[in-house]
Every structure is written in C-alpha cells, then in structure tokens.
Amino acid sequence: MGSLIVLLFFLFLVQEFTNIKCTSLDPEFAHVEHCYLKSVNRTYKYLSIRYLNLLQKPVSRIKVNGATFKRYNGYKPSLYNFTVDGCKFIKNPKSNPVAHYIYRLFKDFSNVNHTCPFNDDPIVEKLPISYINKQVTSVLPVPSGDYLFSSHWYFYDIKRITINVYLTIF
C-alpha cells in the first residue's frame, strides 16, 4: 500500500504510461497476478495492478522504498528516494500531507482502505490516466522527459516485490 502511495505521487504528472513491470522476489510469500497497462482507445488508457497474491496472511509489517529516475543516457536518480511505513501511514494518513494527497488520488480505484493487518490482496484497478490528469494540473514543475518510478516492497523487513513503472511527461 505504501508503494501505491509513492507510485501515484509520480503518476499524477503523467501524460503517458509506457510500461510496467512487477516482479515477485519470493514466490513462497507472494506472486504477481496481473500488472499491466491497457489502451482501450486513443483517449482512454488505464493502469491495473493486482500485483500480489499474499500467500502468508495476515500481513502486519509493510515498508516500501520508492525512487524516481529520469532517462538521460540511461536512467539516473532524480527527485525522490524515500521509504514509507505502509501500516503507520494508513493508520494516520494526515501524518504525511504529500502521501495523503497522493492516496486520495487512487483510493477510489483501490481496496487499500484499512489499517494493518491485511487479509486481502491489495489492488489498484483500472486507474485512468485521464482521471489523474484531471485531479492535478500544474502542481509540480517537473521537466518533460522519460521517467522510471521504481518501488521495492518489504514485508517483515524482507524485500519481496518490485514494481517499475515507466512513463513519459510531456
């Protein structure tokens, strides 16, 4: 859930998703169900992440490291690199105003709406790019270019999942 917060922090400036890759590093703990971009037509595109089936439930300790990279000659670190304690944030979203703002951007498309422990598999389903663009216009002056948002999910202090979202800002 923390990863979703960090993910959407960067996605609100997105004009186009170009790729998404989700990887389970511990198939005994969780596996990727589906993780994709879908273009229904030229004006309707969305992102869906039913990114993990938790095989050892309930989960009560989640940390997520998120970082942004800009493509120059390869992807170079850019803007943010931070760690979020997912359980603490969901318990008190206003404790981090930026994360709270981002959470509000995707919560209507997600089942991440309660505190730990998590007994269900977190999802973001059919999050339209147009919805993100409508909610936020010119909040941060991020230069145009190709970006990568990379997140690493830690359950019980062990890295179990990575999610990489590639995007273009015009």
From TrEMBL:
Keyword Magnesium: no
Any one Pfam family match given in the protein's UniProt record, by short name: DUF1091
Keywords tagged on the record: Signal
InterPro entries assigned to the protein according to its UniProt record, in alphabetical order: DUF1091
Signal sequence interval, chain numbering: 1-22
Record's protein name: GD13246
Organism: Drosophila simulans (Fruit fly)
Source species taxonomy: Eukaryota, Metazoa, Ecdysozoa, Arthropoda, Hexapoda
